[in-house]
Specification:
The protein has 296 residues and is α/β, with parallel strands linked by helices. It has one domain: Vaccinia Virus protein VP39 (Rossmann fold, 3-Layer(aba) Sandwich), CATH 3.40.50.150. It contains 9 helices and 11 strands. The strands form 2 sheets. Strands 6-5-4-7-8-11-10 form a 7-stranded mixed β-sheet, sandwiched between helices. α2 links the parallel β4 and β5. It starts with 16 loop residues before the first strand and ends with a strand. The relative contact order is 0.13. One of its GO terms (molecular function) is methyltransferase activity. This is Methyltransferase domain-containing protein. Keywords: Methyltransferase, Transferase.
Length: 296
């Protein structure tokens, strides 16, 4: 399999990069990948992931549930219950921020959020790389879901009032180019809402290489608040607000405990509770952080 090797930092282009830790792909292949860190800007990234053309194999598995409706087993049930709760939370945030009703959800998966926003009165469209997920969303909900190339060829500048990426940016092979395009198609008063895992969170520190949100090699980039602000800044955005995702510490900690010891729903939940308490008082210490970005 062809690999993508980075000879310099993908964020700041420094050549002072080195291996930080080894992380296992617990979900599908059980392969081990290295995370490398930049000494100049502290950016953390997956070294030698598959090239984009061969990445699909790492998304095809029963254990990988973010693009499926499989609700068998405790973890799947928890995931989907959390998703249903978070639909309302996401709507409340977006509706407070939005200055208009035209929304693009990039990486919409099976379309639940896009459909929810349509039912709330928004003109919402989705973009999704997975053809099966696109078909599912279109057939189940009747929503408009585009292939990824639509972002670069299908929309005029200043088209959208809101663009959302819920745990998507960490999957994109050239995030800078996407952010620059989001800048173009977003209206002058529009908002870009990005949620990504935070490798500086309490649960990440607690679980180390077994932290589920490393999710190699599907997660190519591993953000801290500082490196996220730097990346969006290079595309012309500034972060105006940050928020935590309240259920992420529990789900991530339960999955991490499973990876670390093969079980431990209660112990994982307790660690998630401690991480939640930390993020409740400081969103930027959360297991996942929502960044509200506006044009500079």
């Amino acid at each position: 399999m062809a690999r993508l090797h980075h000879d310099y930092c993908p964020l700041c282009a420094s050549t002072v990069i080195s291996a930080q830790m080894e992380v296992k792909d617990h979900s599908i292949t059980k392969e081990v990948f290295e995370l490398w860190r930049c000494a100049s800007c502290d950016f953390l990234f997956t070294q030698d992931p598959p090239v984009p053309e061969e990445a699909g194999a790492y998304y095809q598995g029963e254990e990988y549930i973010s693009h499926s409706d499989n609700q068998e087993g405790v973890v799947n049930k928890l995931y989907h219950k959390a998703r249903d709760f978070m639909l309302g939370q996401k709507f409340k945030l977006v509706d407070r921020l939005a200055r208009g009703k035209h929304l693009l959800d990039y990486g919409t998966g099976t379309g639940y959020f896009t459909d929810f926003m349509v039912r709330k009165g928004y003109s919402a469209e989705g973009i999704e790389i997975d053809e099966n997920a696109r078909r599912y969303g279109a057939e189940k909900f009747g929503i408009s879901v585009h292939a990824p190339e639509a972002l670069f060829t299908g929309f005029a500048d200043n088209t959208f009032d809101v663009i959302t990426l819920w745990h998507v940016l960490e999957h994109l092979y050239n995030p800078k180019s996407y952010l620059e395009k989001f800048y173009d198609v977003l209206s002058p008063e529009g908002v870009l809402v990005i949620a990504v895992p935070n490798h500086e969170s309490k649960d990440a520190t607690s679980f180390g290489p077994d932290w589920a949100a490393y999710d190699v090699p599907r997660h190519l980039w591993h953000f801290s608040p500082a490196t996220m602000k730097m990346m969006v800044g290079l595309a012309g955005f500034r972060v105006s607000e940050t928020h935590h995702m309240p259920l992420d510490p529990f789900y991530v900690s339960i999955m991490s405990q499973k990876y670390a010891s093969g079980g431990g729903l209660i112990s994982g939940g307790l660690k998630g509770l401690r991480s939640f308490a930390t993020s409740f008082s400081d969103a930027e210490r959360g297991s996942s952080v929502i960044y509200v970005c506006v044009k500079k």
